[in-house]
Amino acid sequence: MGGWAAVPSGLVVRSGELHVFRVSLEPARQAIAQALELVTDAERATAEAFGRSGDGWAFLSARATTRRVLGWVLGRGPKSVEFCRTEHGRLALVDHEVCFSSAYVGDQQLVAVSLISEVGVDVQDGDVAYGENLHLALTEWEQRLLRRLSPDARQMFFLSLWTRKEAVLRAAGYGLRVPPDEVDVLVEDGAGVVAVPLPDGSGMTEVQVRDLPSGRGTVAAVAAAGPVTALHTWTFNPTFHEAHSY
Q1: CB neighbours of 158 closer than 8 A, spacing ≥ 6?
Q2: Dihedral of CA 134/57/39/35: which sign?
Q3: Neighbours of 135 (CB within 10 A)
Q4: 3-class secondary structure for the chain?
Q5: pLDDT tens digits, residue range 75-111?
Q6: Per-residue pLDDT for 242 more than 70?
Q7: How far apart (Å, rounded) are the C-alpha atoms in residues 145 and 195?
Q8: Most exposed of 80, 185, 187, 212 (fewest Cβ within 10 Å)?
Q9: Torsion over CA: 12, 220, 77, 88 (sign)
């Protein structure tokens, strides 16, 4: 898989394709003011409930950025993008025109988009450190492989497993209602099919997962609950794309 390319102006998201957009979150005064114009009163209230102001800003910026990306994909202004919650609590579009997932860490956000398949994306950096408590999120076999590695290599290996698990569980639609230590994400060459047990114990569902190109000290993965014919990774510039769309 290649790296992150600039989004072409005539991009069309087709059935079966999975697109992931990487966006830089800028904490500048102007960016904050623009973000506040794109969020709801309920989202502002949620941000105010965060213990640290930086966390609240990151939440609002991510919501605004998600609206910008989805608005551009759908060919309409970001203010017209309305969110709701599904039966299982995941964020979705009111009109369900596309499926999407969003994740952010530090100054980077990823937004995954598909026309027909539920998707999940996750990104992590070194702030999530492997430790004795976090190994409980791994299957027995994953733990065995991790113990064979040097202490320096364990951190990145753990992050790669954790981002896959988060992406897979989000795509499956159940999040952490499925214990992550029951989901084996050891896939060959960073891509494969993962079996996810259903929360009610009624069976299994399969989800495709793929590692994403590394960048700026982060590890990321994306997953889809349906077949994927092609994966595209883009760098999205909100200012540029909003000036050349709608």
Answers
A1: 130, 134, 138, 146
A2: negative
A3: 15
A4: CCCCEECCCCCCCCCCEEEEEEEECCCCHHHHHHHHCCCCHHHHHHHHCCCCHHHHHHHHHHHHHHHHHHHHHHCCCHHHCCEEECCCCCEEECCCCCEEEEEEECCEEEEEEECCCCEEEEEEECCCCCCCCHHHHCCHHHHHHHHCCCHHHHHHHHHHHHHHHHHHHHHHCCHHHCCHHHCCCCCHHHEEEEEEECCCCCCEEEEEEEECCCECCEEEEEEECCCCCEEEEEECCHHHHHHCCC
A5: 999 999 999 998 878 899 999 899 999 999 988 899 9
A6: no
A7: 19
A8: 80
A9: positive
pTM for this predicted structure: 0.91
Q: In terms of residues, how long is the chain?
A: 246
Q: Please tell me the predicted confidence (pLDDT) of residue 130.
A: 61
Task: Tally the C-alpha atoms within 13 A of residue 175's C-alpha that lie toward its C-beta.
Answer: 7
Taken in order of first residue, the domains within the chain and their CATH numbers are 1-97+229-246 (3.90.470.20), 118-226 (3.90.470.20)
Helix axes 151-172, 140-147, angle to 10 degrees: 160
The 10 Å Cβ neighbour count of residue 37 is 9
Task: Tokens for 115, please give them.
Answer: 């026309």
| pLDDT value of position 27 | 60
